[in-house]
Amino acid sequence: MKEEAVMRIGFIGVGKIGEPIIHNLLTKGFDVTVHDIVRARANRVIDKGALWADTPAAVAVEANAVVTSLPGPSEVKEVVEGPKGITSSIRGETVWIDMSTTDRHQTQR
Q1: pTM (2 decimals)?
Q2: Is the N or the C terminus of the chain less surrounded, counting Cβ atoms within 10 Å?
Q3: Is residue 65 within 8 Å of 39, Cβ to Cβ?
Q4: Among candidates 15, 5, 92, which has minimal Cα distance to 34?
Q5: CA 96, CA 92: separation in Å to the nearest integer?
Q6: How confident is the model at residue 102 (pLDDT cuts 50, 70, 90)?
Q7: CA angle 57, 36, 88 (to 5 degrees)
Q8: How many whole angstroms separate alpha carbon 80 and alpha carbon 43?
Q9: DSSP assignment of 36-73, as one string?
């Protein structure tokens, strides 16, 4: 019998919104790699089975989908386009889902 591949989710932003979503993903059996500017915010989801990545780029390397849940447009820009941002490592078939508090101009850009 063929074994099903596990979807790998990268999640950046382990705050009030991110943490419960990550918890649910882990409960449903997804492999989740996380990053936050403050590592301590990720401790509870790491204790539940999430893996830590030191940079946003490291989150995206093996992910099938990358989710960002960030407080504003400047944080999104840094996480996506910064020197260690996801665009430096994301693969062409990887989906980026942005759930950040941002504006339509940032999304269009």
Answers
A1: 0.92
A2: N
A3: no
A4: 15
A5: 10
A6: confident
A7: 10
A8: 23
A9: -SSGGGGHHHHHTTPEE-SSHHHHHSS-SEEEE--SSH
Q: Measure Cα distances from 48 to 24, 42, 61, 64, 87 in Å.
A: 10, 10, 22, 20, 28
35-66 residues labelled b (16+ CB within 10 A) or e (exposed): bbeeeebbeebeeeebbbbebbbbbbbebbeb
Q: How many residues does the chain have?
A: 109
Closest-CA residue to 63 (of 43, 39, 93, 41): 93
